[in-house]
C-alpha cells in the first residue's frame, strides 16, 4: 500500500521504517529540512538501535523516501499517518497545534480518497476534531476516514517493540477503515484489538498512566524499605511473581522521565478534569515522581554539609538507556540543583551528551568516559543505567577523591560495592 507518514520523530520515523520493512511503500514528510536531508542519506536523526541499518535497506529497496513537501508526500497516499508531537501546555494539557496543522496540510494537499491514521497520543475527541478540520479545509472533495491507532513503542527498543508488540489498537467508526488498517498491519503478526475511536484514544493514556503508577508505587515502597530495613528488589520480585501484578515496571529508582509519561499523566489529569472528574490517584503518582527526581540531591545534602566545594560526577544523562533523548530526563533537574548549590559537575553519557549540551547548564564539564568523570570526584551520582555504567568495575571508583556513590538506578551489587570499599547508597536496598 502507498502510505505517507507526517512527522519523523521517534514515532514517525520508526513507524515509516517498520511499515516499509513489511513491504509497504512509504514516504515520510517532515517540516525540518536538515532532518530530511540526513534521512535521505540513510542517516537517522535520532539514536535508536538498528534504525540506520533498516532505513538504508528500505531506501535502497525503494520502499522508503523522505520529503519536506506535503504535496509530494500525499500525492499517491492511500493512508496517511499523523505522528507529529503533542507536547505539554503550561497547564499540563496536550498541545494540539502540530496535529491541527498536520490536519490542515492533509486537507490542502490530498487528491484521492484517504484513510487518516492518528499515531500521535491525543486527548479523547481529537480524532473527531482532525476529521472536522480536514473536511472543513479540503480543497478537493475526497472521502476521508479516520482511525485512532495509538503507539506503544519504547525508545531504545522501538524497532523490537514495533515487530513484537503486545497489541495493535485500531479505533475506528466503520468496518472499511478498520479492515484496511488491519490489512496494513497484518504482516507484523501482532495481536490486533478493534475498538471505537474514543476508547482507543483513552487506551493510550490509561496504559501510560498505569505504567507510571507502577513506578511511583514501587518508589514509595522503596522509601518504606529503606526505613524498615527491607530490600525493594526482593519485594518487587516477590510481588511480580503474582501474575496479576507482573514483574515488569517495578524497578525502583529516581522516577520516570522521557517525552511521554510526564506529559501523558498530566494530560490525563486534564482530560478527567475537563469532565469534572478529579483523578486523585494519578495526581499522587505525579507528585511522588516529582519528589523522586531530587532524591539523590537530598541524599548528597544529608551526606555533605555543603556542595559548594564539591566535585560531583554524574553518570548517565539520557532519560533511560539506549536513547539520546533528553526530554524530561532527571539529569536536567539534578544538574541544575547541583550547579545552583555551587558544585562542580563532571557529566558523562555514552550517547546523549550532544543533546545534553543544548539543554543543560553551560557550566557542566563533559567527560569522555566513566573513568574521566570519576577522577578526583567527591561523590558520583548514577542517573541512567547504561550497560557501560552498569558494567563498570567497582574498583574504578577508587580513582575518586572519596569513593562515595549514590545510585539512582540500582545498577550495582550492594555487596560488591561494599567489598570494594565504596560508600554506596541505592534506592530502597
Ligand atoms: N517518543 C515516544 O517514544 C513515543 C511518542 N508517542 C507519541 O507520538 C507523538 C510523536 O512523538 P515523537 O515522535 O516523540 O515526536 P518528535 O517531537 O520527536 O517528532 C515530531 C516530528 O514532527 C515534525 N512535524 C511537526 N509538524 C509537522 C507538520 N505539520 N508536517 C510534517 N512534520 C511535522 C517535527 O519536525 C518532528 O520531526 C507524540 O504524540 C507522542 O506522545 C507515542 C509513543 C511513543
Ligand atoms: O508513550 C510513549 O512515549 C511510550 O512511553 C513509554 O516508553 P519510554 O518513555 O520510551 O520508556 P520506558 O521504558 O517506559 O521508561 C520511561 C521512564 O520510566 C523509568 N522506569 C521504567 C521502568 C521501571 O521499572 N522504572 C522506571 O523508573 C525509565 O527510567 C524512564 O525514565 C512506554 O513504556 C511506551 O509503551 C510508550 O509508547
Automatic annotation (TrEMBL):
Pathway note: Nucleotide-sugar biosynthesis; UDP-alpha-D-glucuronate biosynthesis; UDP-alpha-D-glucuronate from UDP-alpha-D-glucose: step 1/1
UniProt-annotated catalytic positions: 260 (nucleophile)
Transmembrane intervals: none
GO biological process, alphabetically ordered: polysaccharide biosynthetic process; UDP-glucuronate biosynthetic process
Enzyme class: oxidoreductase
Keyword S-adenosyl-L-methionine listed: no
Recorded superkingdom: Bacteria
Pfam families in the cross-refs: UDPG_MGDP_dh (PF00984), UDPG_MGDP_dh_C (PF03720), UDPG_MGDP_dh_N (PF03721)
Catalytic activity: UDP-alpha-D-glucose + 2 NAD(+) + H2O = UDP-alpha-D-glucuronate + 2 NADH + 3 H(+)
Domain named UDP-glucose/GDP-mannose dehydrogenase C-terminal: residues: 313-414
SMART domains: UDPG_MGDP_dh_C
InterPro entries, per database record: 6-PGluconate_DH-like_C_sf (IPR008927), NAD(P)-bd_dom_sf (IPR036291), UDP-Glc/GDP-Man (IPR017476), UDP-Glc/GDP-Man_DH_C (IPR014027), UDP-Glc/GDP-Man_DH_C_sf (IPR036220), UDP-Glc/GDP-Man_DH_dimer (IPR014026), UDP-Glc/GDP-Man_DH_N (IPR001732), UDPglc_DH_bac (IPR028357)
Family listed: Belongs to the UDP-glucose/GDP-mannose dehydrogenase family.
Cited function: Catalyzes the conversion of UDP-glucose into UDP-glucuronate, one of the precursors of teichuronic acid.
Name of protein: UDP-glucose 6-dehydrogenase
Amino acid at each position: 500500500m502507498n502510505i505517507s507518514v507526517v512527522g519523523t520523530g521517534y514515532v514517525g520515523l520508526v513507524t515509516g521504517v517498520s511499515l516499509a520493512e513489511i513491504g509497504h511503500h512509504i514516504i515520510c514528510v517532515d517540516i525540518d529540512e536538515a532532518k530530511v536531508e540526513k534521512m535521505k542519506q540513510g542517516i537517522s536523526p535520532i539514536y535508536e538501535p538498528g534504525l540506520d541499518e533498516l532505513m538504508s535497506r528500505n531506501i535502497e529497496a525503494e520502499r522508503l523516501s523522505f520529503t519536506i513537501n506535503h504535496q509530494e508526500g500525499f500525492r499517491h497516499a492511500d493512508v496517511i499517518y499523523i505522528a507529529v508531537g503533542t507536547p505539554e501546555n503550561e497547564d499540563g494539557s496536550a498541545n494540539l497545534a502540530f496535529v491541527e496543522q498536520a490536519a490542515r496540510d492533509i486537507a490542502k494537499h490530498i487528491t484521492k480518497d484517504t484513510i487518516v491514521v492518528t499515531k500521535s497520543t491525543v486527548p479523547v475527541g481529537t480524532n473527531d476534531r482532525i476529521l472536522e478540520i480536514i473536511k472543513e479545509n479540503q480543497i478537493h472533495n475526497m472521502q476521508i476516514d479516520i482511525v485512532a491507532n495509538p503507539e506503544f513503542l519504547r525508545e531504545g527498543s522501538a524497532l523490537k517493540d514495533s515487530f513484537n508488540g503486545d497489541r495493535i489498537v485500531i479505533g475506528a467508526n466503520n468496518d472499511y477503515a478498520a479492515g484496511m488498517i488491519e490489512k496494513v498491519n497484518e504482516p507484523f503478526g501482532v495481536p490486533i484489538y478493534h475498538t471505537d475511536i474514543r476508547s482507543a484514544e483513552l487506551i493510550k493514556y490509561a496504559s501510560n498512566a498505569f505504567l507510571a503508577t507502577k513506578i511511583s508505587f514501587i518508589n514509595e515502597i522503596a522509601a518504606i524499605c529503606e526505613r524498615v530495613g527491607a530490600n525493594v528488589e526482593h519485594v518487587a520480585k516477590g510481588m511480580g511473581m503474582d501474575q496479576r501484578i507482573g514483574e515488569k515496571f517495578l524497578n525502583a529508582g529516581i522516577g520516570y522521565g522521557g517525552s511521554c509519561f510526564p506529559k501523558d499523566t498530566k494530560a490525563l489529569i486534564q482530560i478527567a478534569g475537563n469532565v469534572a472528574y478529579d483523578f486523585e490517584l494519578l495526581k499522587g503518582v505525579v507528585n511522588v515522581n516529582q519528589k523522586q527526581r531530587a532524591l539523590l540531591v537530598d541524599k548528597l545534602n544529608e551526606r555533605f554539609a555543603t556542595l559548594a566545594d564539591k566535585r560531583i560526577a554524574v553518570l548517565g544523562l539520557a532519560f533511560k538507556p539506549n536513547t539520546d533523548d533528553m526530554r524530561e530526563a532527571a539529569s536536567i533537574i539534578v544538574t541544575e540543583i547541583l550547579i545552583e548549590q555551587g558544585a562542580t559537575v563532571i557529566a558523562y553519557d555514552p550517547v546523549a551528551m550532544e543533546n545534553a549540551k543544548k539543554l543543560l547548564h553551560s557550566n557542566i564539564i563533559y567527560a569522555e568516559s566513566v573513568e574521566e568523570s570519576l577522577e578526583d570526584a567527591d561523590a558520583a551520582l548514577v542517573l541512567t543505567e547504561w550497560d557501560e555504567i552498569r558494567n563498570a568495575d567497582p574498583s574504578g571508583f577508587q580513582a575518586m577523591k572519596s569513593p562515595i556513590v549514590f545510585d539512582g538506578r540500582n545498577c550495582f551489587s550492594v555487596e560488591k560495592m561494599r567489598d570494594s570499599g565504596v560508600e554506596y547508597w541505592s534506592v530502597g536496598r
